[in-house]
């Protein structure tokens, strides 16, 4: 994601060990890192001269301080994305962070890749919260101050990632599971088609079916969904349990009237 590299990331928090870990993860992905103990310690003129994202490291039980930091940042930088990175999960905190102006709350993230992809989503101006984030968040959002939100291009538009309402993980076919693994690995449709030896148009049909089943809007969300659900995915080039090419042709033919391939 090239756009993410144009942001300067301001890490806010009193506890240096957690901040250092976050900084190292992001620096390895070539993000630009600025660090401070609090927002007030940063030079206002220096910050205004840059395109910024704010990450607030939360390691205490006093979430009021975090909310105060969020509100201070949003007062000075209303268009800047803000996310909270917590070392523990409190079910009450995501809604409070959202109401204060944050568009991300990350806790107990299962992998560095999932963390980085979540940060990139927040940079795009989208909301990233735990699966337990209540559906009533939309009503909370109505009470927030309106603010400008960056809008990604049509081909990369990312919407808030909502988990399935059912507690059960949707059942994917072997081929869909293989394709979802490819999405997690960042493969394009053409690459997936070569790996699994099917037509690129068929890959598109499968991807749309996956998005519908797991109730997300795009491939980036699907990849994050797959990582967050810790799926035990079979290798993408393992065709032993995959449907035949004839079955794929039938799927493609039946989907023409539903999907734009």
Account of the 3D structure:
- The protein is α/β, with parallel strands linked by helices and 261 residues long.
- It folds into two domains: 2-153, Rossmann fold (3-Layer(aba) Sandwich), CATH 3.40.50; 174-255, Winged helix-like DNA-binding domain superfamily/Winged helix DNA-binding domain (Arc Repressor Mutant, subunit A).
- Helix content is 43%, strand content 10%.
- It is built from eleven helices and five strands.
- The protein has helices spanning 16-28, 44-48, 63-76, 93-100, 112-123, 137-141, 174-184, 189-196, 200-214, 219-228, 245-255; strands spanning 8-12, 32-36, 52-58, 82-86, 104-107.
- It has a five-stranded parallel sheet, sandwiched between helices.
- Helix 1 (16-28) links the parallel strand 1 (8-12) and strand 2 (32-36).
- Helix 3 (63-76) packs parallel to helix 4 (93-100) and helix 7 crosses helix 10.
- The two termini are 25 Å apart.
- The model is unreliable at 141-167, 231-244 and 249-261 (pLDDT under 50).
Number of domains: 2
| Average of pLDDT | 73
The total beta strand count reads 5
Please identify, by name, the CATH architecture of the largest domain.
3-Layer(aba) Sandwich
CATH class of the largest domain: Alpha Beta
N-C termini distance:
25 Å
Rg, nearest Å: 20 Å
Main sheet properties: 5 strands, parallel
* Global shape: elongated
Q: Which secondary-structure class do the elements indicate? A: alpha/beta
Strand order of the largest sheet: 2-1-3-4-5
Instruction: Please mark out the parts with pLDDT under 50 across 5 or more consecutive residues, or reply none.
Output: 141-167, 231-244, 249-261
CATH topology heading of the largest domain: Rossmann fold
User: Share of helix among residues?
Assistant: 40-55%
The name of the CATH superfamily of the largest domain reads Response regulator
Portion of residues in beta strands equals 5-15%
Summarize the helix and strand pattern as letters: EHEHEHEHEHHHHHHH
> DSSP helix count?
11
